[in-house]
Amino acid sequence: YVPPRVRKSQEILDDKKREELGRLKKMVNGLINRLSEPNLPSISGQMEDLYMANSRKDMNETLTDILMNACVTAVAMPSRLMMEHVLLVSILHHNVGVEVGAHFLEAVVKKFDEICKSDAEGKECENLLALIAHLYNFHVVHSLLIFDILKELVSAFTEKEIELILFLLKNVGFSLRKDDALALKELITEAQRKANTAEKKFQDQTRVRFMLETMLALRNNDMRKIPGYDPEPVERLRKLQRTLVRSSGKETQLRVSLESLVSADRVGRWWIVGSSWSGAPMIDDTNKKTQQKLHIGKVSSKIMELARKQRMNTDIRRSIFCVLMTSEDFLDAFEKLLG
Predict the structure, then answer these.
(1) Helix (H), strand (E) counts: the chain
(2) Is residue 207 scored above 70 in pLDDT?
């Protein structure tokens, strides 16, 4: 039972919070709407001030929602606009804290995973993939995630996936080659194997051939073979990023896998220091069933009573306690624990 007086004060607090969040959303929205390359320094400065004045949680959620609404649309977004939005996230990620980039990255990857599994007709998948690619270009995330996504796309290997592979390689291919040439080589080998086994599946082979040619051009570091490849816009924005970021990019890069991001709600977020976590147990119940129980034979009631007094409140704790108490020496205890 909640007394009416307490209930009323709680409602007043909720209304106040809602009003504050509405005001914050309006301010962030106004800054994002004015975002462009020339005024990025002033916009990022004002966003940093907002982070200092408001709770990180509210700011992260507000910024992510606004950016997702602006960038994830059914029509293809202009590449330059995408880059400017991601560059803002990158600057805040390096200057304010890694939780800024981590929150945005998790939302983007989860949405990408969800939309790719549904057969959406629009360009949302490409837009989300462009966001992930530029988060890598601007040193928010490590190449590990990009390789994970490419492996997933290669393993599916339908026409839609081939288009996404080409799109991603065009945006980040040469950076991947620089970061991990061996992983790229392995990916190319796997793609060639898939293409050979899937020859009969596709009516039109030209797209598959074009994808393989693109991959070989990347392996041979031949930029001329990739039509429409232009590294200049990314390089220009990277120079701007270096002038605005107060720490080096490599130390704040998130080295996180696709699986970790998709299952973050279930297993927690180890890549954010001090992040609170609540939800399902980190180890599934199915794992508990497969755990071997320690074989300890019969132990006296006196030892079991001692175990109870020492608050050994699970079978596994009681078993280990009894083994330690009844062993002759450390070697005997070791053998029993292994058994």
Answers:
(1) 17, 0
(2) yes
